[in-house]
Model the fold of this input.
Amino acid sequence: MTERVLPLVVRIERAAPPERTDALEAAATAVLRMLDQDDWPGEIEEWQDGRIRKVVRRARGAEWRRVLALPGITVRVGTAEVRVHPPVPLDDWPKDLSRLQVSGTELGDSAPPPAPDPDVPVLWVNPHLDMTAGKAMAQAGHGAQFAWWGAGEEDRAAWRERGLAVSVRTAPPGSWPDLAGGGLPVVRDAGFTEIEPGSATVVADAPWLRTGVPEV
Done:
Protein backbone atom coordinates (compact mmCIF):
# COMPACT_ATOMS: atom_id res chain seq x y z
CA MET A 1 0.00 0.00 0.00
CA THR A 2 1.27 3.48 -0.88
CA GLU A 3 1.70 5.76 2.12
CA ARG A 4 -0.13 8.99 1.37
CA VAL A 5 -0.34 12.44 2.91
CA LEU A 6 -3.03 15.08 2.56
CA PRO A 7 -1.69 18.43 1.26
CA LEU A 8 -3.29 21.60 2.60
CA VAL A 9 -2.12 24.97 1.28
CA VAL A 10 -2.88 28.23 3.07
CA ARG A 11 -2.66 31.52 1.22
CA ILE A 12 -0.41 33.95 3.10
CA GLU A 13 0.19 37.19 1.26
CA ARG A 14 2.81 39.49 2.77
CA ALA A 15 0.50 42.49 2.95
CA ALA A 16 -2.58 40.64 4.23
CA PRO A 17 -1.94 37.42 6.15
CA PRO A 18 -5.05 35.64 7.44
CA GLU A 19 -6.18 35.55 11.04
CA ARG A 20 -5.01 32.41 12.81
CA THR A 21 -8.48 31.22 13.88
CA ASP A 22 -9.86 31.76 10.37
CA ALA A 23 -7.02 29.66 8.96
CA LEU A 24 -7.64 26.83 11.43
CA GLU A 25 -11.36 26.78 10.67
CA ALA A 26 -10.76 26.92 6.92
CA ALA A 27 -8.35 23.97 7.11
CA ALA A 28 -10.81 21.89 9.14
CA THR A 29 -13.68 22.70 6.77
CA ALA A 30 -11.51 21.93 3.74
CA VAL A 31 -10.85 18.43 5.08
CA LEU A 32 -14.58 17.93 5.57
CA ARG A 33 -15.44 19.18 2.08
CA MET A 34 -12.89 16.76 0.66
CA LEU A 35 -14.39 13.84 2.61
CA ASP A 36 -17.93 14.79 1.57
CA GLN A 37 -17.49 14.33 -2.19
CA ASP A 38 -16.85 11.50 -4.62
CA ASP A 39 -13.69 12.57 -6.44
CA TRP A 40 -10.36 10.81 -5.82
CA PRO A 41 -11.92 7.74 -4.12
CA GLY A 42 -8.85 5.53 -4.52
CA GLU A 43 -6.45 8.11 -3.13
CA ILE A 44 -8.72 8.95 -0.21
CA GLU A 45 -9.35 5.30 0.69
CA GLU A 46 -5.64 4.49 0.62
CA TRP A 47 -4.86 7.54 2.73
CA GLN A 48 -7.55 6.79 5.30
CA ASP A 49 -6.23 3.24 5.63
CA GLY A 50 -2.95 4.74 6.82
CA ARG A 51 -2.09 7.47 9.32
CA ILE A 52 -4.31 10.25 7.87
CA ARG A 53 -1.20 12.43 7.87
CA LYS A 54 -1.71 16.06 6.82
CA VAL A 55 0.92 18.62 5.83
CA VAL A 56 0.23 22.35 5.60
CA ARG A 57 2.26 24.53 3.24
CA ARG A 58 1.97 28.23 2.43
CA ALA A 59 1.71 30.04 -0.89
CA ARG A 60 1.32 33.58 -2.18
CA GLY A 61 1.16 35.42 -5.48
CA ALA A 62 2.15 33.27 -8.44
CA GLU A 63 2.59 30.26 -6.14
CA TRP A 64 -1.05 30.47 -5.14
CA ARG A 65 -2.18 30.81 -8.75
CA ARG A 66 -0.28 27.63 -9.63
CA VAL A 67 -1.89 25.87 -6.67
CA LEU A 68 -5.34 26.84 -7.97
CA ALA A 69 -4.54 25.16 -11.30
CA LEU A 70 -4.10 21.78 -9.58
CA PRO A 71 -6.99 19.48 -8.63
CA GLY A 72 -8.37 20.55 -5.28
CA ILE A 73 -11.04 22.32 -3.26
CA THR A 74 -10.70 25.88 -1.98
CA VAL A 75 -12.39 26.97 1.24
CA ARG A 76 -12.69 30.56 2.45
CA VAL A 77 -13.43 31.41 6.07
CA GLY A 78 -13.24 35.05 7.02
CA THR A 79 -9.77 36.29 6.08
CA ALA A 80 -8.40 32.83 5.22
CA GLU A 81 -8.18 30.78 2.03
CA VAL A 82 -7.11 27.15 2.24
CA ARG A 83 -6.94 24.63 -0.58
CA VAL A 84 -7.01 20.89 -0.03
CA HIS A 85 -5.65 18.54 -2.69
CA PRO A 86 -6.05 14.81 -3.30
CA PRO A 87 -3.85 12.70 -1.00
CA VAL A 88 -0.42 12.25 -2.60
CA PRO A 89 2.32 9.65 -2.10
CA LEU A 90 4.54 10.69 0.78
CA ASP A 91 7.62 10.87 -1.47
CA ASP A 92 6.01 11.95 -4.74
CA TRP A 93 4.35 15.34 -4.42
CA PRO A 94 3.36 17.37 -7.51
CA LYS A 95 6.14 19.84 -8.29
CA ASP A 96 4.04 22.94 -7.66
CA LEU A 97 3.19 21.65 -4.18
CA SER A 98 6.55 20.17 -3.24
CA ARG A 99 8.35 23.50 -3.80
CA LEU A 100 6.12 25.33 -1.31
CA GLN A 101 7.47 26.10 2.15
CA VAL A 102 6.18 24.50 5.33
CA SER A 103 7.73 27.16 7.55
CA GLY A 104 6.36 30.66 7.80
CA THR A 105 2.88 29.84 9.08
CA GLU A 106 3.23 31.76 12.36
CA LEU A 107 -0.14 33.51 12.24
CA GLY A 108 -1.93 35.37 15.00
CA ASP A 109 -5.33 36.82 15.80
CA SER A 110 -5.75 40.58 15.92
CA ALA A 111 -8.44 40.18 18.58
CA PRO A 112 -9.73 37.33 20.75
CA PRO A 113 -12.12 35.14 18.74
CA PRO A 114 -15.77 35.21 19.78
CA ALA A 115 -17.49 32.40 21.61
CA PRO A 116 -17.83 29.28 19.45
CA ASP A 117 -20.93 28.84 17.34
CA PRO A 118 -23.29 26.61 19.37
CA ASP A 119 -24.78 25.12 16.18
CA VAL A 120 -21.58 23.58 14.79
CA PRO A 121 -18.92 21.19 16.13
CA VAL A 122 -16.18 22.73 18.24
CA LEU A 123 -12.55 21.67 17.95
CA TRP A 124 -10.82 22.46 21.22
CA VAL A 125 -7.06 23.04 20.97
CA ASN A 126 -4.78 22.07 23.84
CA PRO A 127 -3.89 25.32 25.65
CA HIS A 128 -0.65 23.85 26.99
CA LEU A 129 1.02 23.24 23.61
CA ASP A 130 2.92 25.78 21.52
CA MET A 131 2.11 25.05 17.87
CA THR A 132 2.62 27.11 14.74
CA ALA A 133 -0.56 27.90 12.83
CA GLY A 134 0.43 25.33 10.20
CA LYS A 135 0.78 22.59 12.79
CA ALA A 136 -2.47 23.60 14.48
CA MET A 137 -4.27 23.63 11.11
CA ALA A 138 -3.26 20.02 10.51
CA GLN A 139 -4.43 19.06 14.01
CA ALA A 140 -7.75 20.85 13.49
CA GLY A 141 -8.13 18.88 10.27
CA HIS A 142 -7.64 15.65 12.22
CA GLY A 143 -10.25 16.71 14.77
CA ALA A 144 -12.76 17.56 12.04
CA GLN A 145 -12.16 14.17 10.46
CA PHE A 146 -12.85 12.41 13.76
CA ALA A 147 -16.10 14.36 14.12
CA TRP A 148 -17.06 13.32 10.58
CA TRP A 149 -16.33 9.67 11.25
CA GLY A 150 -18.49 9.80 14.37
CA ALA A 151 -21.48 11.44 12.67
CA GLY A 152 -24.51 9.53 11.41
CA GLU A 153 -26.26 10.38 8.16
CA GLU A 154 -28.78 12.70 9.83
CA ASP A 155 -25.99 14.47 11.66
CA ARG A 156 -24.04 14.88 8.43
CA ALA A 157 -27.09 16.17 6.58
CA ALA A 158 -27.68 18.86 9.21
CA TRP A 159 -23.98 19.71 9.19
CA ARG A 160 -24.04 20.13 5.39
CA GLU A 161 -26.84 22.65 5.75
CA ARG A 162 -24.42 24.73 7.80
CA GLY A 163 -21.69 24.42 5.18
CA LEU A 164 -19.74 21.83 7.21
CA ALA A 165 -18.61 24.72 9.37
CA VAL A 166 -16.67 24.24 12.59
CA SER A 167 -15.48 26.47 15.40
CA VAL A 168 -11.85 26.10 16.48
CA ARG A 169 -10.97 27.53 19.88
CA THR A 170 -8.20 27.15 22.42
CA ALA A 171 -9.65 25.38 25.41
CA PRO A 172 -9.65 27.18 28.76
CA PRO A 173 -6.75 25.67 30.70
CA GLY A 174 -9.00 24.60 33.54
CA SER A 175 -11.38 22.81 31.18
CA TRP A 176 -8.78 20.86 29.22
CA PRO A 177 -8.46 17.84 31.58
CA ASP A 178 -12.21 17.22 31.48
CA LEU A 179 -12.37 17.70 27.70
CA ALA A 180 -9.43 15.38 27.04
CA GLY A 181 -10.60 12.76 29.51
CA GLY A 182 -14.34 12.95 28.97
CA GLY A 183 -14.79 10.34 26.25
CA LEU A 184 -14.74 12.69 23.26
CA PRO A 185 -12.41 11.91 20.32
CA VAL A 186 -8.87 13.08 21.09
CA VAL A 187 -6.23 13.77 18.45
CA ARG A 188 -2.82 12.44 19.49
CA ASP A 189 0.08 13.60 17.38
CA ALA A 190 2.58 11.20 15.85
CA GLY A 191 5.41 13.55 16.81
CA PHE A 192 6.93 14.14 13.37
CA THR A 193 7.28 17.89 14.02
CA GLU A 194 7.16 20.46 16.82
CA ILE A 195 5.68 18.43 19.68
CA GLU A 196 6.28 15.19 21.52
CA PRO A 197 4.81 11.95 20.14
CA GLY A 198 1.49 11.08 21.71
CA SER A 199 0.67 14.66 22.70
CA ALA A 200 -3.06 15.35 22.87
CA THR A 201 -3.59 18.29 20.54
CA VAL A 202 -7.31 18.66 19.80
CA VAL A 203 -10.59 17.39 21.20
CA ALA A 204 -13.56 17.14 18.83
CA ASP A 205 -16.86 18.12 20.44
CA ALA A 206 -20.32 17.76 18.85
CA PRO A 207 -23.69 16.57 20.17
CA TRP A 208 -23.42 13.23 18.36
CA LEU A 209 -20.01 12.62 19.92
CA ARG A 210 -21.23 12.94 23.50
CA THR A 211 -22.35 9.31 23.65
CA GLY A 212 -19.25 7.56 24.89
CA VAL A 213 -17.12 7.74 21.74
CA PRO A 214 -13.73 6.19 22.60
CA GLU A 215 -10.44 7.99 22.09
CA VAL A 216 -9.22 7.70 18.48
Strands lie at 4-11, 54-59, 73-77, 80-84, 88-89, 122-125, 167-170, 186-188, 200-205. Helices lie at 20-35, 41-48, 62-68, 95-98, 133-149, 153-161, 176-180. Residues 212-216 have pLDDT under 50 and may be disordered.
